[in-house]
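Lay summary. Proteins are chains of building blocks that fold into shapes, and those shapes determine what they do. In this project we predict the shape from the chain. Here is one chain we studied, written as its sequence of building blocks.
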Amino acid sequence: MANQSNARMKFYIDTKRCIECGGCEVGCKNENHVPMGISRIRVVTVNEGETGETNVPIPCMHCTNAPCVAVCPVDALFSRQDGIVQVNKDTCIGCGYCLYACPFGAPQFPTAAPFGVRGVMDKCTYCAGGPEVPHSQREMQLYGSNRVADGKLPMCASVCATKALVAGDSKDVTEVAQKRIAQRGSGEVPWGWSTAYPGA
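And here is the predicted shape, written in a compact code that computers can read:
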């Protein structure tokens, strides 16, 4: 992975490669001890059983101008210098504004009760832990693994057998996307980029 001091981390989701194996979902849950009922990444099948059926792994895309950050009334959501969007679970009040603002449905809540009593929001952390001391027991308990601090990629991208999920520094990820798109001769815009990374 590239030097992250000036990195802008992002995902590339190659919908032509995803085979809906579920490895990303299982890898994420195991690595981060994600509680039952929460899915930090999920694979959605579009046009199932029809021509053009597509599988789309959907994590938090860690948007450039994250709408969830903009609407959070208590500033529990914030973007780190490297572009990773995190939530401070000690500050979150569970209002649900972030869920309504997120175009990818990333925010998750532990119960299906009305907002305010659903509990604290949880989402994909890009395997970068949270706003706690890196590798502390509290960080692991609240946010899960901090692979990024060790120079590793998020677990979902690491275990993806077909490399449908690519993660890392923006420059490196963009090069992979451009190469694959050029090989296909399609000129497609990578899934989710026009929303998550406008101008990318």
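What the prediction tells us: The CA atoms of residues 111 and 190 lie 33 Å apart.
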